[in-house]
Design goal:
- The structure is a homodimer.
- The first copy, chain A, is mainly alpha-helical and about 550 residues long.
- Helix content of chain A is about 60%, strand content about 5%.
- Chain A contains 24 helices and 6 strands.
- In chain A, the strands form 3 sheets. The first copy, chain A, has a two-stranded antiparallel sheet with strand order 1-2.
- In chain A, helix 4 runs antiparallel to helix 16 and helix 19 crosses helix 21.
- At the A-B interface, helix 8 and helix 11 of A face helix 8 and helix 11 of B.
- Chains A, B: This is Inorganic anion transporter.
- Chains A, B: Keywords: Membrane, Transmembrane, Transmembrane helix.
- Chains A, B: Pfam families: HCO3_cotransp (PF00955).
- Chains A, B: Its main location: membrane.
């Protein structure tokens, strides 16, 4: 049974991770204090806080129990714990979009059952945290090798649709509230202005003015800059005169929970059947995080970054479990690895030099500052924002800007998603179809078309699941995609077609005995075998695919 | 003295034009009545009416004496006369942006002198019309061969800047009027929405969905579609409730002048010194039209269209003069050839077939319906719009949409303007500079840079002239560019550099004796001589440039 990894026997993976990482622990705190790492701290803080606030606002609107302070506190505590205890401290953790969607589903379920949402949420996380620890001990993280582009891109499309609908519904709602027409229009301008300005600035890397550093800066900070500018506009002249008609971020006056509740819940003031039932969302959180956390972790440790200190997937997932238990006890959202922030963090720590390879100038990483305090400091900053006077600044942001940010996230996540790319090919005029992908030249277009239609249909079925009372189960459907890819699709498409459209991700063949399997860096070395070697054992002269390439394909799964 | 054309002796050019065109006159009315020509009528009507209304609204706001009816009537009458009597009836005439700018300047001058603007304007046109006839008789149209890209693109940049400022100032003014904030915001949305939607739709030719016909349609009708959509939005729900706070197009209830004056002015109820002084704006109109009308006419008769019936530049300019005398008597704006509508008109009448040449599929023109009634009918339709009930439809268009259209016209005119392209190269990061132009590879970049800086400086000097009391003289500055190119630039740049950056336009060398010079089609066959043969006589194995290429460079001079 090739499915079960070697580590699936006790704590072997975690212990190995600990043994390898422990000797390097002191250097994690002592080395690389310089301008580059300082810049990295602020860069990570800003790129993480904008989506965090956006999700927080969505949670505040729907659940009324979780707001900006809760989300920031979760990022702060989880980030600090993870940066201190994890084996790979480069992974930035935070509250993601899928977690937000799941939280809203859990809220809906609690409401339907007429039980306390916060208790239900807390117990789900406590169970989930414990499951994480067990899963880490069992070496379950290794299963990520079966998550191909088929799952990642269907997931990405689903998230894009949900974000787009969230943003659009947010904007439409301005016109149903009983406020002045001027406020409705101003909020529409703020929302669409944020979307368009973010899209424009995010494209800065394609500009030709300035230098690359400047363009990358503008591109990376696009949503932050857009929110700052539109918040500024909303605070001057007649826009500011709109007063409370213009809805701004709902934040408390100082560090405290959104409803004024105490931080620690009385966990046992809750029916036992509720505690048992919370195992359902707990399992779903586990399934989501096996997928989501490990993909971000792999991307943060991509081969191009030339990391030296080694990885620790099992230990990391165990530490993540501890964090989730804690966030559960506090009744605040759980954190996991962030895409694209985690890989951006590693990239920001790389010292690169330009080198000409095959006539093309490329960046070659000379070294990467592998340390813990950039992650720790950015997490700390996220906490500081929850206190006066900074929390007052957050309270100035119009909610409309965040609706716009959702639209931006949806639109900017589509390029690079192969499902989206194939959809564009399907709707294009036949004479104008073109694609850089090998499958486009290798396969009959009718085959590509039926594969794409099927995948789109699946994506929309899952989307409609999220609109039903069982919306919470959507990560199960995502997980089921792995099964569909491995067991169902081969019934309708031949093996060569499937491997061309969706190559399986395998451990590098230079590591066949599992001796070094716990060093998961190997998984970042993806192998595309175009000749049909589907099962793991078979090798063949597989063409190595650059890890960064496949990583970037996963970006939209954030 | 190579400057003076052969025709510069009496009416020779006009007579030749008449003799050649007369035998084909009957067929101009009898042939080619089919679906293609019918579509062309409506296409031309819509692509001409949108900018016409925009300019009309600008004129109404500034002069209060010229509005939508005046501009449409001018297009209608001039178009009908031109289509019936001109030698080349494919040229669509109408009120252009430069004419609008000039009209506003004439208004400013009349105001400063405290004389009747309409009388001053009328006399200027009557003189100008007579001058046109004299110029046509003298064969002056041939001078257009000296108008190189240097003049065209400086002119284009100037117009783009003026349009951009007009649009932006229009939007800024919403906030200075004492209306509700909701109306200000709604107008801002309508303006920027029109700009962005127009830009988006105009890019349809680069889309891949649908077929080429659909994409070309969307692209050609972009501003019309954008105005229709945003006008629709402005008419529903709370936007419509804004009532008179939302400024709409100022049209009379039925066909009549904007202020209710009679159509025929008492021309002699005006001081004699004013009649004499109007010779100044008259000369400027002449200089502008020699430039603007003939460029559009050449473009409408580009070699690619395979026209068979021959051209008639001298006769056309004479007929244009007659039209200007008439518009002058009515006190409505003068018309001349429209760019890009004139070449679009011819293109819409071409029957093409796809052909593979050198491995690339190209459109080859099989025949073009050379006739008079498409032009005549679209002109007639423009007049019909001035009567009930259609005029009521025009009155529903928010003025803000037209401000947005100005921004669109400014932005969409820039690509293809070599001054703009070189400006982009100058501000680009040196490593990322790239250009398809031959001069980019042939010349030292420092030279390109100083040439571009000089040209930009000239463009902005002329722009600042338009802000002064002598703004009316801007066509003189444009005309002076020809002198600058031929006499001043050679002092600072060597001949090879100038010919690379700005090749002189010459009659095709296969027509050296002037025998067929009156068949101006030859001028569309532009010759680029990279080896430095500046004077007309010298031939050399000049590389023939496709006419359409150079024509498209002139598009922004509209």
């Amino acid at each position: 049974m090739g499915w079960l990894p070697e580590e699936a026997s006790g704590f072997r993976g975690i212990v190995k991770d600990l043994k390898r990482r422990a000797p390097k622990y002191v250097s994690d705190w002592t080395e690389g204090h310089n301008a580059k790492t300082t810049a990295s701290i602020f860069f990570m803080f800003f790129t993480s806080i904008a989506p965090a606030i956006t999700f927080a606002e969505l949670l505040a609107t729907t659940t009324e129990k979780i707001g900006v302070v809760e989300v920031c506190l979760s990022s702060c505590l989880s980030g600090m714990v993870f940066s201190v205890f994890a084996g790979q401290p480069l992974v930035i953790v935070g509250v993601t979009g899928p977690v937000t969607i799941l939280t809203i589903s859990i809220y809906g379920m609690a409401k339907a059952l007429d039980i306390s949402f916060l208790h239900f949420y807390a117990w789900a996380q406590i169970w989930a945290g414990l499951m994480h620890m067990a899963a880490a001990a069992a070496g379950l993280c290794d299963y990520i090798r079966y998550i191909t582009n088929f799952s990642c891109h269907t997931f990405g499309m689903l998230i894009a649709v949900i974000y787009a609908v969230t943003g659009a519904v947010g904007i439409a709602k301005y016109y149903t509230r009983s406020q002045s027409f001027a406020a409705c229009l101003m909020e529409t301008i703020l929302a669409l202005g944020t979307t368009l300005l973010s899209l424009y600035l995010a494209n800065a890397s394609n500009w030709v003015i300035g230098n690359e550093k400047f363009r990358t800066f503008v591109s990376d900070y696009a949503p932050t800059v857009a929110i700052v500018i539109w918040t500024g506009i909303s605070l001057v002249g007649r826009a500011d005169d709109l007063g409370s008609d213009l809805t701004r971020l709902n934040v408390p006056r100082n560090f405290q929970t959104i409803g004024g509740r105490t931080w620690f819940l009385n966990l046992f003031d809750f029916p036992v059947w509720g505690i048992v039932l919370s195992l359902v969302p707990a399992s779903i959180i586990l399934i989501l995080f096996i997928f989501d956390h490990n993909v971000s972790s792999i991307m943060a440790q991509s081969k191009e970054f030339q990391l030296k200190k080694g990885s620790a997937y099992h230990l990391d997932f165990f530490v993540l479990g501890i964090c989730i238990v804690f966030t559960g006890i506090l009744g605040i959202p759980p954190c996991n690895g962030l895409i694209p922030q985690a890989p951006l963090h590693t990239k920001s720590l790389c010292v690169v030099r330009k080198e000409k390879q095959h006539g093309v100038v490329v960046d070659v990483v000379e070294r990467t500052y592998e340390q813990r305090y950039t992650n720790f400091s950015q997490a700390l900053l996220t906490g500081v924002v929850c206190f006066r006077p900074l929390i007052g600044v957050l309270g100035q942001i119009p909610k409309a800007c965040l609706d716009g940010l959702f639209l931006f996230m949806a639109l900017s996540s589509l390029p690079g998603n192969e499902l989206y790319e194939r959809f564009c090919l399907v709707i294009a005029e036949p004479a104008l179809r073109k694609s850089p992908h090998a499958w486009f030249r290798a396969l009959d277009f009718a085959t590509i078309k039926s594969f794409t239609k099927l995948q789109l249909a699946i994506a929309f079925v899952i989307y409609f699941v999220t609109l039903t009372p069982i919306s919470m189960t959507f990560p199960l459907f995502i997980a089921a995609l792995v099964y569909v890819r491995l067991k169902v699709l081969p019934k309708y498409f031949d093996e060569a077609t499937l491997l061309a459209l969706d190559p399986l991700i395998e451990l590098a063949p230079d590591d066949p005995d599992g001796a070094k399997k716990d060093d998961f860096n190997g998984a970042a070395e993806l192998v595309e075998d175009p000749r049909g070697a589907a099962d793991e054992g078979k090798e063949g002269d597989a063409a190595a695919m650059p890890a960064s390439d496949s990583s970037s394909n996963l970006l939209e799964a954030a």
